[in-house]
Write a structure and sequence with these properties.
Blueprint (H helix, E strand, L loop, with lengths): L1 H25 L9 H5 L13 E4 L3 E4 L2 E2 H7 L11 H10 L5 H13 L5 H9 L6 H11 L5 H7 L8 H27 L13 H9 L5 H11 L8 H11 L4 H12 L7 H16 L6 H13 L17 H13 L4 H20 L10 H10 L8 H22 L12 H8 L6
Antiparallel strand pairs: 1-2, 2-3
Helix pairs in contact: 4-5, 6-7, 6-9, 7-9, 7-13, 9-10, 9-19, 10-11, 11-19, 12-13, 12-19, 13-19, 14-18, 15-17, 16-18
The structure holds carboxymethyldethia coenzyme *A.
The site of carboxymethyldethia coenzyme *A has 22 residues, from loops.
């Protein structure tokens, strides 16, 4: 870790004057506005968060530290003989802004490996939960149960100075991130494979080890690497990232913050949409008796869902206005590895018919598919068919970005978050909409 921490320390020290200067010399300049519609409508588009880990352009999609998805996948080093890059190398990029050399990625992978042992009490806790607990509730509980291990809390009580908060936060983040794949795979094997747990293999990288512990053969290791990287970050205003940042802003440690992040991700309008897509497709398949519907039949299913007052899961986005490049990266994987899979054919059909229908309906600002429309299909193909588990995979990935953000929040001394609220009557007064009593 020496190299990463040293690199990060230098970057933080070089960056701090930029934030200080912005605050001191330009603190009262306006960079956005807030309308009544935004205050009532979930703060959509209000420019009031700062992050340098990733940026989401409505038309282009996500850039991690300035790199598009294809650029990221091409530039990051890969474990020997593998097609997808080290997840650990991607975390290095998110934290430092630098593409690691193969040696740096390998050394960082070794460092994370040394932190990856999950305490036995976490497994005991998971075993003690009711059998019908949702995997996301299990994941969140497992994470918060390790809060007692927080180094940040220990050092804070010892009187740690504000400028050094980031250091034990980084330690907590790496300790937690290193354990998440083992916890995720444990939940899967406990819940869906009769508790037949597979021990980690210390010779493997994070993605390879996850596939091994899940008990799924190649190329599931490359898929896991790709999946964790694609889901890692989507700037900081989405529910999971914002929740993690918000909770951490109270100086709650990484365990509390990431558990909260997981809870936000578990909503059907956010990370749970990948489960909802498979549920929806299964419903259609049952009605079709397993047969692939024609375009006309599929259009009818889409309209029936919309007319029933429900959303089409996996379509639309609060920021994106084009097909999500994370969708396209996974679609390419499908076209290469599972072009004839029946569920992929369903998803492909949905891709062809849904945008035009959403456009015709005229409500969704973005009729195009998002990341969740495609991801469950691939899991299903590799025999991970228990779709209520899919959001745990999203959570392992998303934690990489949110932890990186929290480390930088602490490094730049971002304060506790506290936007101001108004009452409805105050807004009516302000805009001249007060109804006489
Ligand atoms: N199907 C049907 N209606 C949709 C829709 C969809 N896929 N996407 C948006 N709409 C509707 C909204 O429900 C809203 O309707 P009301 O005016 O009746 O409330 C209207 O279109 C306008 O919404 P919007 O401004 O286009 O979208 P939002 O920013 O409010 O919401 C999102 C974004 C993702 C929650 C929404 O598109 C949605 O519910 N999609 C389906 C669920 C999904 O795939 N979520 C995963 C997103 C990616 C992720 O975070 O993981």
């Amino acid at each position: 870790m020496g190299n990463l921490k040293e690199t990060l320390k230098n970057k933080i020290e070089a960056w701090r004057p930029r934030t200080t200067r912005l605050l001191k010399e330009h603190g009262d300049k306006v960079i956005g506005e807030c309308t009544v519609a935004q205050a009532i409508g979930g703060m959509r588009g209000v420019k009031c968060l700062v992050t340098d880990i990733s940026y989401l352009d409505p038309n282009e999609g996500i850039r991690f530290r300035g790199y598009t998805i294809p650029e990221t996948l091409a530039a990051l080093p890969k474990p020997e003989g593998q097609e997808a890059p080290y997840v650990e190398g991607h975390l290095y990029l998110l934290l430092t802004g630098d593409i690691p050399t193969p040696e740096e990625a390998k050394a960082f992978a070794e460092d994370l490996k040394a932190r990856s042992k999950v305490p036995e009490y976490v497994f005991d806790l998971l075993r003690s939960l009711p059998a019908d607990s949702h995997p996301m509730a299990m994941f969140s509980a497992a994470i918060v149960s390790m809060q007692r291990e927080s180094l940040f809390v220990k050092r804070y009580h010892e009187g740690l100075g504000k400028m050094d908060y980031w250091d034990p936060t980084l330690e907590d983040a790496l300790n937690l991130l290193a354990r998440l794949p083992t916890i995720g795979a444990f939940i899967y094997r406990l819940k869906y494979r009769d508790g037949d747990i597979i021990a980690p293999d210390s010779t493997l990288d994070m993605g390879g080890n996850f596939a091994h512990m899940m008990g799924v053969d190649k190329p599931y290791d490359d898929l896991s690497r790709l999946y964790f990287i694609l889901h890692s970050d989507h700037e900081s205003g989405n529910v999971s990232a914002h929740t993690g940042h918000l909770v951490a802003s109270a100086l709650s440690d990484v365990y509390y913050s990431i558990s909260a992040m997981v809870n936000g991700l578990a909503g059907p309008l956010h990370g749970l949409a990948n489960e909802m897509v498979l549920r929806w497709i299964q419903g259609v398949m049952d009605k079709m008796g397993g047969k692939i519907p024609s375009e006309e039949e599929m259009k009818k299913f889409v309209w029936d869902t919309l007319n029933g007052g429900q959303v089409i899961p996996g379509f639309g986005h609060a920021v994106l206005r084009k097909t999500d490049p994370r969708y396209m990266a996974q679609r390419e994987f499908c076209l290469k590895n599972l072009p004839d899979d029946p569920i992929f054919k369903y998803v492909d059909l949905l891709f062809r018919v849904t945008p035009a229908i959403l456009e015709k309906q005229g409500k969704a600002k973005n009729p195009w598919p998002n990341v969740d429309a495609q991801s469950g299909v691939i899991q299903w193909y590799y025999n991970v068919k228990e779709y209520d588990f899919y959001t745990v995979l999203f959570g392992i990935g998303r934690a990489l970005g949110v932890c990186s953000n929290i480390v930088w929040d602490r490094a730049l001394g971002y304060p506790i978050e506290r936007p101001k609220s108004l009452t409805t009557a105050m807004i009516e007064e302000m805009v001249g909409a007060k109804t006489p009593v």
